[in-house]
Amino acid sequence: MRTADYRQVNITGGFWKALQDKVATVSLYNVYEQFKETGRFDAVKCIRNDERKPHIFWDSDVAKWLESAAYVLAKRKDERLTALVKEAVADICANQLPCGYFNSYFQVYEPENIFKKRTEHELYCAGHLIEAAVALYEAGVDEALYRAMLRYADYIYERFYEKKDAGFYTCGHPEIELALVRLADCSGEKKYLTLAVYFLEERGKHGEETYDFTYPVYHLDRCPVREMREAEGHAVRALYLYIAVADAAQRLQDAQLAETARRLFADIVNKKMYVTGGVGSSFHGETFTFPYDLPNIFAYGETCAGIALALFCDRLAKLEPRAEYHAVFERVLYNNVLAGMSADGKGFFYVNPLEMHAALYDYNEGLRTKLYCPLPERVEVFDCSCCPPNLTRFLSEIGNYLYGEEDGTVYVEQYVTSEAELCGVKLCVQSDMPYAGAVRIRTAGSGALKLRVPAWSGGIAMKVNGQAAKADVAEGYIGLAVSGDTEIELTFAMQPRFVYANKSVWYDAGRKAVEYGPFVLCAESCDNGADLSAVRIPSLDGAKQTEGSFFTLEVPAQRLQTENGLYAYAPPVPQPFLLKLIPYFCWANRGKGDMQVWWL
């Protein structure tokens, strides 16, 4: 399936227009200021400063910011933003080595070790610079970085594929692979796809360098790619690799690689994914661990890993249009991914726990040797600040993930207020999602449509040109033909529902979470008081929307009261009260406190 490019899609209103406006006017500039203050933009000037030595992956932070700016500038004029982009690009191009190499750390501080240290993110940074260059070029914002990165990609091809004289075979942190596929698509130069596939095929065959604190699984080297059976290792690295596997499968029509991608997806969503769509459950190595290991308060669920899972879903949908892929995309998008940014657009989460106890965090802060404990509030920058620019670029290009076309049929995958034209059919979508299930689609032209039924839908009502019509659903899509000017009204029934964890998820056995439409809901102590872990929700009868700082669902619940002693022989007494639930992505916007997703 070919998906519509964000440049073909205009987001015209609703939830996503407001969010993209915030990213363009607040988040992007705030990330820039934080990166400027911490030295990231100065680093690409390649001036040695031993008192402010750049980190090995700062180039990738700058690159993701540039890519974000490309998507914003493709849709709106902004002279200040354009000037900032041009300045950063000029610095990179001016300091590129004659051979084409660019890395602000290695060429300044360790030129003798260029392409000798596998673990140190050289090719990872190169991949993000390539992605930024393609985005700026395709958006019509800048061509200089694109030309520079073609030279860099040629140099990587020469060293790794032709001469094979680098100190390693494959990148410790995958990213270059998917970036090379993207460069091949843009340039039409097949050698970049050849190099991407070479990096995939060489992985797991050479016993390469890894970190002292971990083992080959971390770097995805336990076996060749085609033999991979389960998701393991560093979650972001793994998913970036899996994206490239799916990309290569599609470009080469390689059935074995396609089956590998499907197998890895199934392992993730059936055994290793949080109800919020978060993945990578362990702080130690930011890794996938083993089936059903999904702790709540010590959950990792890195924002970048959530974005990577969404991108993997998109690539799988390009291999074959299955509603399941976009159902998972929707889950991770509206929960784990959106939770990564604060309501004001300035703060970010690196990790996304499903439970928070402020007292535990405060205690941990007082320890000389700290335990791993997620932050209770978002911050504006991290030492490792990969997530903020990853969010700004992903949210700014969300138009890439709404529509597709295959064999003359237009697929509507995500219901976002927007306009697009595919297969000769003009579409104008008005959507109340994610807060309500009403959608109106106006079309002009003739063709076939497939409209995805959200996995959470409790029923469908449909009208075509004002007349009630039967929604013929097959494999998760409503199929219908349109001719001339047509108006389709859809109402997907949206009501709260319980979701139960598999019995093997021992943290949540016997508990349930509450979903409403695409949202997983949570409760905070600022609305409900203390002792959230003692709350029981007998049923969802009587649940109703109410006023609050965010979308709020009020649910009849019980708080289990016990005697004052530490232990007692009398059973707890249920005390009725109204529990206020909000979307998970909204938590931690009103000060530090407790939060919970799973209930008795």
Instruction: Classify the secondary structure makeup into a structural class.
Output: alpha+beta
User: Uncertain runs with pLDDT below 50, 5 residues or more?
Assistant: none
The general outline is globular
Tell me the β content.
Answer: 15-25%
Rg value = 24 Å
Largest pleated sheet: 9 strands, antiparallel
Report the average pLDDT across residues: 97
Helix content: 25-40%
Contiguous helical run count: 16
In whole angstroms, the N-to-C terminal distance is 43 Å
What is the count of β-strands? 24
Brief overview:
The chain is of the alpha+beta class. It has helices spanning 14-38, 40-43, 58-73, 79-95, 106-109, 122-138, 144-162, 176-187, 190-202, 235-252, 255-271, 303-319, 323-337, 358-365, 387-396, 525-528; strands at 2-3, 10-11, 233-234, 287-288, 355-356, 403-406, 409-412, 418-422, 425-431, 438-444, 447-452, 460-464, 467-469, 473-474, 477-482, 486-492, 496-500, 512-516, 519-524, 535-536, 544-546, 552-561, 573-583, 595-596.
